[in-house]
Amino acid sequence: MSDSPSYRTAVFGATSAIAGETLRALLADRPAEILLIGRNADRLETVAADLRARGAVCEVHATDLLNPDAGWESLLAGKEWDLFLIAHGSLPDQDATLADPHATGREIDINLISPVRIAAACARILDKQQKGTLAVFGSVAGDRGRQSNYLYGATKAALETFLAGLRHRFADLPAVAITLLKPGLTDTPMTANIEKGPLFSSASKVGEAAWKAIHKRKSTAYLPGWWRLVMGVIRHLPEFVLHKTKL
Ligand SMILES: NC(=O)c1ccc[n+]([C@@H]2O[C@H](COP(=O)([O-])OP(=O)(O)OC[C@H]3O[C@@H](n4cnc5c(N)ncnc54)[C@H](OP(=O)(O)O)[C@@H]3O)[C@@H](O)[C@H]2O)c1
Q1: What is the pLDDT of residue 1?
Q2: CB of 56 within 8 A of CB of 80?
Q3: How far is CA 72 from the centre of its chain?
Q4: pTM greater than the 0.85 cutoff
Q5: How many A from CA of 155 to the centre of ligand 1?
Q6: Which of 137, 144, 155, 194 best tests ligand 1's pocket when mutated (most atoms within 8 Å of CB)?
Q7: Are 36 and 47 spatial neighbours (Cβ–Cβ below 8 Å)?
C-alpha cells in the first residue's frame, strides 16, 4: 500500500460484484475511506466487512436508489470526495419485461433514471469541489441495438450520452473526470442465467481494469479493452448482415 492520503469514495449499488472487485483493486493501490450505498443492509455489511479486512474505513447506507427524494447531495455533504462510483444495474428477461409496462418502466428507472439523478447530484458536488471523479458503469450493450438486449442497451446508450454531455460541461475543469466504464460479458449474479462462453471475463479482471481506468482518469474504458474492437465490428455491421445474426 502506498503512503498516499485516504481516497474518499462513495459507491452507489455497492453490492455489485464488479464494484466490489473495483474497490478491492483500489485498496490494493491506496488507503481508502468508502461509503457503501445500496438497497440491502445485510449485503452491504458483508461487502463492508471484506473491505475493512483489506484496510478500508467503511460506512454503509441502505436506501432505495430509485427514490427521487432520497437527497443524495445532503447524504454526501460536508466531506470532500475523490470518487463517486455508480454501479447498480439490472438485466432481467427482456421479453417478460417488455410484456409488462410497469416492469419496463422499472428497468428504465434502475438502469437510466436513477443513475442519471445520482450522477447529476454528484456532478453538483464535483462542481463545488472543482475536482474529483465520477465513474459510472455503462455497458458494451449500449453500442448497438441488438435483438438480445435492446431495452437494457437503450438505457446504457442514453446513460453514455448523458455522461458525454456532462464531460463536455466540465471540459474547462481538468481536475474533474467523468469516466464511463463499459464492461463486456462478466461472470456476476447479473449474468447468472446466461450460458458462459469465451467472451466472458471474471469480475476481478473487470474490476481491476475499472480501477485502472478510474486511476488514469479515462473518459471511456471498455473492460477488458478488447471489447472496443469487438464492438467496433458490431457497430459497423450493415443492418442486413446484423439481421442475419442472433446477436
Ligand atoms: N455483468 C455483466 O456482464 C455486465 C456487463 C456490462 C455492464 N454491466 C454493468 O455493470 C454494473 C455492475 O453489474 P454487476 O455485473 O456487478 O451486477 P451484480 O453483481 O448483479 O450487481 C447489480 C447491482 O445492482 C443493484 N440493483 C439491482 N436492482 C436494483 C434496484 N432495483 N435497486 C437498487 N439496486 C439494484 C444490486 O443490488 P442488490 O445486491 O441489492 O441486488 C447490485 O448492487 C451494472 O451497471 C451493470 O449494468 C455488467
Answers
A1: 43
A2: no
A3: 17
A4: yes
A5: 14
A6: 137
A7: yes
